[in-house]
Amino acid sequence: LHYLKAVTFAEIQTHNTISSAKYIFSCFTLIFFGSWAAIASGMMYAVYLSTFHERKFWFSNRQDLEREISFQADSGLYYYYYKKMLQAGSIQEGLFELMHDNKTLSMRTLNSVQQIHLYPEVFASILYRVTGSQEVIDPVYFYIGIIFGLQAVYVTALYITSWMLSGTWMAGMLTVVWYIINRTDTTRVEYAIPLRENWALPYFALEVAALTSYLKININSTMEMFSYLLMSASTFAFIMMWEISHYVLFVQAISLFLVDCLDLVQTRKVTDVYRMYLVCLGLGYFLQFRNSALLASPLLSFLGASQLAKYIQVFKFIIYILNTQKMIPEEENEHILKFFEAKFDLNTTRDFNTNLLLCQETFQSPSQDFFIRLTHTCLLPFCVTALLICLFSTFEVVFKKFCDGSLENTMIGQRPEVVYHMFHTVLFGSLALMFQGLKYLWTPYACMFTAFGVCAPQLWLTVFKWFRLKTIPPVFLALMLSTAVPTIIGFSMWRDFFPEVMDELSELQEFYDTDTVELMNWIRKQTPTAAVLAGSMQLMGTVKLCTGRTVTTHPLYSDKDLRKRTEEIYQVYSRRSAEDIYMILTSYKTNYVVVEEGICNEMGPVKGCRVKDLLDVANGHVSILKTLFGRFCHEIKLDYSPYVNYFTRVYWNRSYHVYKVNTLISFQY
C-alpha cells in the first residue's frame, strides 16, 4: 500500500510538472507573438506615415526650399532652429547661439531654447552629430524619421496598454486598427510633423502604459519597480518635450485622486506617483532655465494641496498658497485666465489676442462631423457602452465595500487600473467636448479603452452576472463573445476602410505653393541679409526658415511682448492711417512689410473671426462711421499719397505684396 501511494504521488507530481511546463510554454508563446505583433504594428504605422508623407509632398523630388515650405507656420520655426544647430561649428557653439539669439526677433535677444521650447530640436541635432549620420542621411529625413519613429512607439504603447487591461493581444490589434482609421482625430503628424505634441505624446503613452502596470493589484515587486522607473523616465521626457505637459499630468493626477478617494488602490502607490511628479517638475524647472510656468502649474498646486492638507491647518495652507503665488510672475497665467473667462462667457473682452485664440479651430468645440466619423467607425458607441459598464461596476463595488464588504473577484470595477482609465477617458473626453484640439489627447485613449472593453472577458462576465444567466455558463459565453465580437469588428473595418487607406498611399498628391516659393526666392536674392521683415505670424515662420531674415514676430507668441508685437504688426489689416502704421513698423526697425491677399480679402466662414474683424473690434472701428481711414492693406495698393510717402512697393504676385519701409519720407501730392 505504501508503495502504491508513493507511485501515485510520483505520477501526480510528474503530471503537475508537465502541466506547469505546458502552461509556461503557452504563456511564453502568447507573450512572444503578442510582443512581436505590438512591435510590428508600430513599425508598419511608421512606414505608412513615411510613405504617405512622400506621396503628399514628393520630398525626394523637391529642392531644399520647396521641402522647407512644407513646414509651415510654427512647424517651420521649429525646423529652422534644428537646421541652425546643425549649421553651427559645434554643439556648444550651436547651444550658445540659441541661448543668445538676437537674429530671430528684431530689437530683442532671446533664450530660444527656453522661450520656444526647443529641447526636441536640441536633442535631434545632438543625436544627428553623435551618431555620425551626416554622411548617411539628409538632416530633414533624420528629423522627420525620429518623429515617425516616436509615432511607432506611441502606437506600440497604446497596444500594450490595451493588452494589459484586457489580457489578450487581440485588444492591442483592435486598438491599432481604430487608431489608424480614425487618424483624422487621433493625430496631426500627417500635416504638421514638428509640433510639440508629436514629440511628447509618445512619452505620455509610455507613461500611461507603465502606470497601468504599476496600479495592478497582483504585480510582483520587480515588475512594480520596473514600471515605476519607466513611468518616472517617460514623465520627465514628457515634461521636457512639451510646454503644456504639466496641464495633461494635472488631469492624470485628478484621475488618480478619484481612484484613491474610492479606496480602490493602495494610497502608497498614489503617493509615490505624486512624489514622482514633484521630482520631475523640479528637474524640469531647473533644466528649463528656472521655468516659472512650472511653478504656476495647477499640477504643483494640486500636489501641494494633497500633501500639505495632511499636516497643516486649512487657514495656514491658504496663507501658504497666497504667498507662493506672489513669487510667480503674474503674466504667466494672466492671458490664460483671460482666455478661459472669455471662453466660458464670464467676461466680454475686446482684447485682440484673446479673441484671436478663441477663433482658432483648436480652441472651439468639435463639429458634428467629429461625432459622425467616430460613430461611422463604431468607436463612439462601443466606447460609451464600455464606459457605462465600468462606471456601474465601480459604483457597485464601492457600494458593497462600504455596506457589507462582500466582493466578487469577477467584477471589473475592482481593478484600480481599469477605474483609472475610466476616469482618464471621461476627463479628457469632457475637455475634448470644449476644445477641439484636445481630441488628439482623448481619441487615441478612447481607441485603446474601447478595444479593451470589447475584448476583455471580465467585462462581458460582469454584464452577464448582472443578468444572472442560467441557460449558458457566463464564463463560456464571456470567452466566446470577447473573441467573436472583436473579430467581427476587425473584419468589418478591414472591408470598409482598408481599401481607403491603400488608395491614399497609391494616390500621388501635389503640394506646390508657387507664390510662396517665388516670394522666398525674391527675399533671398533682393533683400540684405540683415533686413527685418514684418507680416503675419504664420508667414514669418516660413520666412525665418527659408531665408534666415530677422522678423518682427513669429507664430509662437508665448509671452507678453510677443503678443503685443503680434497685435501691432497685424494693424496693417486695420483701418489706421499710413502714418500710424509707419510709426509702428519703424518702432521695430522694419525694412519690409508683406501684405497677404488671403488676410486682406479674407472671406472666412465666421465673419467675426476674420483678422480684420478682430482688429476692428479691438480698435473700436466696428462701425465705418467711427474711423476716418480706409483699410490700410487696401489703400496702400492704390499708390497715392500719403501711402507712397511712407512705403514703396518692391515686389508682388497673386498672393503677396511686399513694401519697403522708406527711411526718408518724400511727400508727394
CATH architecture of the domain at 514-661: 3-Layer(aba) Sandwich
The Rg value, from CA coordinates, equals 29 Å
Coarse structural class: mainly alpha
- Report the biggest beta sheet as strand number plus sense, adding barrel if it closes: 5 strands, mixed
Stretches with pLDDT under 50, minimum 5 residues: 1-12, 313-330
Number of helices: 32
Per the CATH scheme, the topology name of the domain at 514-661 is Rossmann fold
CATH class of the domain at 514-661: Alpha Beta
Strand order of the largest sheet: 2-1-3-5-4
Helix content: 55-70%
Average residue-wise pLDDT? 85
Counting DSSP E segments of at least 2 residues, the number of strands comes to: 5
Anisotropy-based shape: elongated
Characterize the structure shown.
This protein has 669 residues and is mainly alpha-helical. Among the domains are: 369-506; 514-661, Rossmann fold, CATH 3.40.50. Helix content is 68%, strand content 3%. The protein is built from 32 helices and five strands. It has helices at 2-57, 64-69, 74-87, 91-99, 112-115, 119-130, 139-166, 169-181, 183-186, 196-215, 221-241, 245-261, 267-287, 292-295, 298-308, 314-326, 331-343, 352-359, 368-376, 379-403, 416-434, 439-455, 457-467, 474-506, 514-526, 537-547, 560-569, 578-587, 597-600, 611-619, 632-635, 643-646; strands spanning 532-534, 550-551, 592-596, 647-652, 656-661. A five-stranded mixed β-sheet has the order 2-1-3-5-4. β1, α26 and β2 (550-551) form a beta-alpha-beta unit. α7 (139-166) packs across α8, α10 packs antiparallel against α11 and α21 runs antiparallel to α22. It is elongated and about 90 Å long. It starts with a helix and ends in an 8-residue tail after the last strand. The model is unreliable at 1-12 and 313-330 (pLDDT under 50).
